[in-house]
Amino acid sequence: MANSAAETLIGAAVLATAVGFLAYASQSTDIGGGSTDAYELVARFNSAEGLRVGTDVRLAGVKIGTVTSLELNPQSYQADLRFSVTDEVLIPDDSEVSVASEGLLGGSFLEVAPGGSEFMLGDGEEVLLTQSSVSLLNLLLKFASGDAQ
User: Fold this and answer.
1) Which of 53, 73, 130, 146 has the fewest beta carbons under 10 Å from its own?
2) Separation of alpha carbons 146 and 149, rounded Å
């Protein structure tokens, strides 16, 4: 009977630890979805290579949001990207959004370069100035073949 009580206590401790990890993971990755303190913007790219849903959106190296959806537009053959930005950060309407890389072997993120306009983008509006991702392999091939112009 003593073994049964010890096994029950150990099982309860393991279960409580698992619930704690799940709660922490949900909070740190925003899986809960209860956050409404952000607004959504739209951008279109010729190439959004390296971006995925959940990718960071950064301004001056600081995370200000995440990519919420990425789909191919069958009419324009461009990548339609939606991303959320925290309400604390207002983005001028002449800002540029580009696909940036963390380094040669690092991942990609969406970088916002703020413009100087006094008018700010609102929920659902489109960022018109975009810069697509640059393929490192294509750059190396151009350099190796001498076509780097």
Assistant:
1) 146
2) 8
